[in-house]
Amino acid sequence: MTESSSNDESVKPPTWFEFVGQELLKERLMVHIKAAVIGKRPLEHVLLSGPPGSGKTTLANLIPPALYFDCPRLTLNGVGLDRKQLIDRVCPPDFRGGVLIIDEIHAMAKKDQEFLLDLLGRGYLGNMHFGWITVIGATTERDAIITPLVDRFPLKPEFEPYTDEELGLIVQGMAERIDLDMTTETAQDLGRACGGIPSNAKQFVFAYRALLSTSGKIPEASQVLDLCQVDPDGLPQLHRRDDNRSSRPRPAGVLIKSPRDAERCAEVWMRWMGFEDARLTPEGPDSGIDVISRRAVAQVKAQTVPAPLEQIQRTYGIATAEQREHALFFSLGGYTPQALAWGRQHGVALFEFDLQGEPEAKSEAARRLLRDGLT
Ligand SMILES: Nc1ncnc2c1ncn2[C@@H]1O[C@H](COP(=O)(O)OP(=O)(O)OP(=O)(O)O)[C@@H](O)[C@H]1O
Ligand SMILES: [Mg+2]
């Protein structure tokens, strides 16, 4: 690396093995990569989802070289990508097959996403056919991707929060790539200040270099944070693993025998997710809301039939009218396809209870609440 480089490329991990963290995700993905190489067949389509700055684009671009040394690849961005541009770009000589990366795939309009279905299904884009194709999508908003397209990706790895230690290693790796001497302690301090997001490490590393070259002295972490105008405690921790709900003891199962049991169960789970003031609304004529909290409203349906669209819309409508940030829906009998699609599009947290009262997430908003709790 040249010392003058100050762009993103210069600090990016150049290989799969230098990509720090996401160990389980990488391990699982590597099983499929190896199987594809051994079987001499294309890797299944992969949809990577995770919070902004978590490393999706970087990892997506590290998959083709992990498959084959000179694996053909084309990277496109979903922002403004329509049907016509797809046909123009995804064709010889730019692309004859191999790996097609579509970054920010959720940014494509729904009708253009539909156009991709045949490519992922049968390898057709319009009347072009690709015998060998793997599509890798990267997204921060899985809910904004049409369900049939999400379903066409056999592999859907989700990024997990990084630990502070991993972020320290990310800072250290970036510093090494631009030939900076940095102590492990400083790297760890800066890693802790990243707020759980690897992309924040870049500004710290570049500020460290600026201080070093202007003063000629090894900077302290506090000076770096000061230059970046970041509070000495670091950026707010958005996605740290310690905050992860999954490490907390989950509520005990209860057998749901009546509608009130289901409502009580929803109340207990909402408190666990972080809605600490969640409480049942009084029994009586159905107002449409069964559990309320300062930041959320929830409706609970204990019927064994799928909850219909109108009920989801009603809960969402009440949340909006009462200015509560979260609309939650718990259903024992699942959801109609229309209810699912609409709820996902509008960010409703859709849960399905099993008979032991364990909620399963049916939308990204619900997944996030179960995984990270209130943030
Ligand atoms: N696990 C990691 N190890 C080392 N560096 C990383 C890692 N994850 C991200 N980075 C670095 O952080 C920066 C941001 O990563 P990247 O652009 O891949 O994130 P992203 O999830 O695609 O973000 P966005 O949602 O904004 O598109 C890059 O400079 C990358 O080099
Ligand atoms: Mg990206």
What's the structural blueprint in terms of helices and strands?
Elements: H1 8-11, H2 23-39, E1 46-49, H3 56-67, E2 73-77, H4 83-89, E3 98-103, H5 110-122, E4 124-125, E5 128-129, E6 133-139, H6 147-151, H7 164-177, H8 184-192, H9 199-215, H10 221-227, H11 259-273, E7 279-280, E8 291-293, E9 296-301, H12 309-321, E10 326-331, H13 337-345, E11 349-353, E12 359-361, H14 364-372
Parallel strand pairs: 1-6, 2-3, 3-6, 9-10, 10-11
Antiparallel strand pairs: 4-5, 7-8, 8-9, 11-12
Helix pairs in contact: 7-8, 7-9, 9-10, 12-13
Bound molecules: adenosine-5'-triphosphate and magnesium ion.
Descriptive labels:
alpha/beta, four-stranded parallel β-sheet, 12 strands, Helicase, Ruva Protein, domain 3, Trna Endonuclease, Chain: A, domain 1, 3 domains, 40% helix, Rossmann fold, binds adenosine-5'-triphosphate, 375 residues, binds magnesium ion
